[in-house]
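Whiteboard transcription, Tuesday session. T.W. wrote the structure tokens on the left side:
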């Protein structure tokens, strides 16, 4: 039986009038408990055989390790600022839901700790709100390309090549091949190139992938949302927990968490166009700039790229 973390907190508060904990999900392979500590603070508890070795504070969240009397360890996530309750709830539910695919209990703690590192980066960046419409569309374009790569080369290699969340020069990179993905509206014929390195084909073959996404409604045939797209990729990774873990952490780096707000932004895929970025392709590379110049940002008219279309 699965209980929402918030439901457990509310129940403990109303029924005990004090502190206490309850198992979040008896079917979950990890021993997560939600409750209220003796200081009336909302808490998520993970019981593990291994010493998590974690004692730190995120913004508003204290993370503490305690040795239990039975020889096991308690990893506690404690909300210290009640005004950030919704953020803490989202954080706790993400730890629980993202680890649900773990089939080996011995790997559970390492996954949670890796997840915690990604959340810590997000807390520090302050990037925990909703993604903008442009960011949703950009991430959707990358995920569509990721699905294509998974079908062609398999999940481990595809996920490993996804470098967009790491702010790399190109969104997908192998040693000798890279793809830069741009998402545009169907009526638009230009893309923004963020730097002189983004279309630099000096060290590896490079393709520019232009994904045309239109706007749909909940009744649009073949329409999809960002949440649906994420879940589609997750289904492709179920058999490989290590790859699944890497994907989940990349999503966090992208600023994504499964918020219901994304369900209202329906998109439809119109077309995907690939261009070979080779000699003669209209782009600016580092060697094209005079000494002392860098950080170039420019618009690329796709009408001029037609001869290079694959």
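and on the right, the sequence the group agreed on:
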């Amino acid at each position: 039986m699965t209980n929402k973390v918030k439901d457990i907190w509310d129940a403990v508060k109303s029924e005990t009038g004090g502190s206490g904990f309850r198992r979040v999900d008896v079917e979950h392979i990890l021993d997560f408990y939600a409750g209220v500590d003796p200081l009336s603070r909302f808490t998520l508890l993970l019981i593990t055989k291994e010493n998590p070795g974690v004692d730190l504070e995120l913004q508003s969240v204290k993370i503490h390790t305690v040795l239990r009397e039975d020889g096991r360890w308690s990893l506690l996530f404690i909300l210290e600022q009640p005004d950030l309750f919704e953020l803490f709830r989202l954080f706790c539910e993400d730890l629980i839901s993202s680890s649900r695919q773990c089939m080996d209990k011995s790997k559970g703690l390492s996954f949670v700790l890796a997840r915690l590192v990604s959340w810590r980066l997000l807390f520090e960046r302050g990037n925990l709100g909703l993604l903008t419409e442009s960011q949703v569309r950009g991430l959707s374009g990358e995920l569509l390309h990721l699905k294509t790569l998974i079908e062609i080369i398999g999940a481990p290699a595809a996920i490993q090549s996804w470098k967009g969340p790491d702010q790399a020069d190109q969104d997908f990179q192998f040693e000798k091949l890279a793809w830069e993905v741009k998402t545009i509206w169907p009526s638009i014929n230009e893309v923004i190139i963020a730097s002189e390195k983004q279309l630099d084909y000096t060290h590896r073959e490079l393709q520019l992938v232009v994904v045309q996404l239109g706007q749909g409604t909940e009744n649009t045939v073949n329409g999809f949302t960002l949440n649906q797209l994420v879940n589609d990729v997750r289904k492709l990774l179920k058999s490989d927990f290590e790859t699944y873990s890497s994907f989940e952490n990349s999503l966090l780096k992208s600023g994504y968490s499964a918020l219901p707000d994304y369900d209202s932004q329906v998109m439809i895929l119109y077309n995907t166009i690939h261009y070979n970025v080779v000699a003669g392709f209209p782009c600016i590379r580092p060697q094209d700039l005079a000494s002392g110049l860098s950080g170039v940002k420019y618009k690329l008219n796709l009408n001029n790229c037609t001869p290079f279309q694959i």
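Someone added at the bottom: The mean pLDDT is 91.
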